[in-house]
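Much of what follows relies on a compact textual record of a protein's fold. Here is one such record, which you should read through line by line:
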Amino acid sequence: MEILKCEGVRKIYGSGQNQVKALDGIDFSVNKGEFVAIVGASGSGKSTLLHILGSVDKPTEGKVLVEGTDISTLNRTQAAIFRRRKVGLVYQFYNLIPTLTVRKNILMPLLLDKRKINQEYFERVVNALGIADKLDFLPNQLSGGQQQRAAIARALIYRPALLLADEPTGNLDQKNSREIVDMLKLSNRNLQQTILLITHDEKIALEADRIVTMEDGRIVSDRKRG
């Protein structure tokens, strides 16, 4: 089942001689349950693409359909609501609220929507991520790896259509990086979570089911592993 479709997506910054094509005609789709790595050198357009897929930014041209909704047509308020309900975002900086406990940080998307908490699913997520014993801690009482796990739990709690991870291991050592990738694979396998992972690390990319390579704002390779 197709969950994401990009059609002729372009992103242009500036004008005239200062014009920069960050994305230059992106066409691709992702099926539900896929784990896709997007790789490319710095400036290839991969982070710009992720921001557009997450409705943080808009394309200059083209369509981005997530579960049939063209998110490129949403206004700022609609985009914020859509992002909270349908897209889980994980960055290399954890973006946890320092004055809230880990529990409240994870549940924040549901609390903002005044949605009922599915306690069974919540426990399943925090147990899978190994932070069930850290829920009453503040973020600064956790290690970097534990904070990233909390950020992933927050991204998963709404059961989003897409989990978008932008260099989620960028600030972590090798051991914690390995654990975070294992956690993403676990959520993909056990929770059937669709994941798009942006990384410059080839070893991490090889953990995905499919590798999309970008260069100069274009997709130059799209291959499934195995």
